[in-house]
Write a structure and sequence with these properties.
Length: about 200
């Protein structure tokens, strides 16, 4: 998005100064028209939809620039790349949903917790799974989650402080780090080796 902005600015097009979402429907239509060769600010501004139509005079001024052949090329390539990334994300999302389908009941249960959304549920299930038998109590699960959080952020914050905030003993954290790998970690390591 930043690169797209820079290309527009080098062509003296200030679309972002008027349109809050350059990649929204109106903005995308205008960008596609620019790539197709339209340079008339009046014609480009008329592509505005919805609330953006109230800003037509400002939009005409913002779209009155000097777009050259190389700008069109760069815009086309950037838009194609963004489309590719959106398609890839959609495919990945579909794949994730497919993998989560067997856990639909657990997902619904987790989403009944206030503040927990589908993305958080997917992360929780990926990290913890649905077998809670490995945690003797809710406190053990909470402690494990705190330990993982400390491990992930130990480069950013002192371990001592995080242990105090998360109510985890410092000695418990270091003992947890020295534990032998669990079955899942061994399977993940084996899979990683097979992939290489």
């Amino acid at each position: 998005m930043n690169r797209l902005q820079k290309v527009l600015e080098t062509a003296n097009l200030k679309l972002a100064a008027v349109a809050t979402d350059v990649m929204g429907k109106s903005g995308r239509d205008m960008l596609d028209a620019l790539v197709a060769g339209t340079t008339d600010a009046e014609i480009l501004a008329e592509l505005a939809r919805g609330k953006l139509r109230k800003k037509l005079p400002e939009l005409r001024e913002a779209l009155d620039g000097r777009i050259e052949k190389h700008h069109r090329l760069l815009l086309r390539l950037l838009l194609e790349h963004m489309d590719f990334l959106e398609q890839t994300l959609a495919q990945l999302q579909q794949e994730i949903e497919e993998h989560l389908r067997p856990y639909e009941e657990a997902m619904q249960l987790l989403m009944s917790i206030p503040g927990i959304q589908a993305l958080s549920v997917a992360a929780i299930l990926a990290e913890i799974g649905i077998d809670m038998s490995r945690f003797p109590s809710a406190k053990h699960l909470a402690s494990w989650a705190g330990l993982c959080l400390i491990e992930q952020h130990k480069q950013e914050f002192p371990v001592v402080v995080m242990c105090q905030v998360l109510d985890v003993s410092e000695s418990g954290f270091y003992a947890w780090r020295k534990r032998p790998p669990c079955q899942r970690q061994r399977e993940d390591a084996q899979l990683t080796e097979e992939i290489r």
